[in-house]
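Tutorial handout. Part one gives the primary structure; part two gives the three-dimensional structure as tokens.
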Amino acid sequence: MDEANDPPTIARLTDHIESGAHEAAVGGLKAYESAAADRRREALQALSSLADDHPAAFTPVLAELVPFLTDDERAVRLTTAKLFVAVADAEPAAVGAVAEPLAERLADDEEFYYVRARAAEALGYVARDEPDAVDTPELLAELRVGLDFDEPEVVEKLAKALECVALGQPHRLGHHAPAVASHLDDDSELVRYHLCTALVAVGCERPAALQDCRDALVECLEDENSYVRGRAAEAIGLLVRADKPGGSLPNERLVALQDEEPSFVADRAQFAVAELVDETSDARKCNEVGSLEGVRAETEAIVEDITTPDEEGTCSQCGHVLPEHGPPLCPRCGGPQ
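Part two.
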């Protein structure tokens, strides 16, 4: 290869991006498209780490990163998708402008399932904060139908993306609420939490959409995870606002949950009981329960709490919980295990 066309060192490439040297960054990324596989892997790992700390620096060069989503190397595709997740969380409008390649990765049944999971996560962040950028029936169908057929690791990200869709535009999930509720018995507590939270978001805007979800929500009041129990109580409280809630409601169980620890469950049970007797709970007065604002403010910390792992079974490089039968690389950082 001609030295003039050699890719820059990884340190120089990251410096170009971090400093906003746009022309040099674009040229460097294009040069890396034809670099050796090990250099592409190392470069994308460095860029992904930079994106975790400085996601805004990548908004001018996202189009140049798109080719790496279809790289021949699976590890490169995965690390690139992870980079898009970091940027989408902080700069959703920028990722929304290049959302189509991510949607294609999600829809590709032959793609490595961790890549599909990360694509779903990135698209979810866009749907949460820039919903018009990904407002397509195809994406919603991909997220919903995938709950039935995908690998467990993908289903977790699909559920998270559906929660994000509901937080961005609750009405989009209104007609799909019963299908979402049918997965509230998933083996993964994280999936159950995300989907129950999505239904709460729908209920904040359209309580009647939860009518056919009543039985599944009532069952979730017995869930082993307190956050799922709390969200179920919150959703039932919202369902009360519908003219026809779809059947009798578990008044006695909700009353009992008012005294449960932690307070996350008790506050939401109090909210539901107050709705049943047409009163206003203290939590509702503070806009903490039964509102999109409250859900958005809490859910990130809740997910972190649910996923906080014991040291055993985690990535030695980033601390991510590793799936029991996963590939020999971390789905979060792409590092070898």
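Part three, for discussion. Residues 37-53 form the longest helix (17 residues). The radius of gyration is 22 Å.
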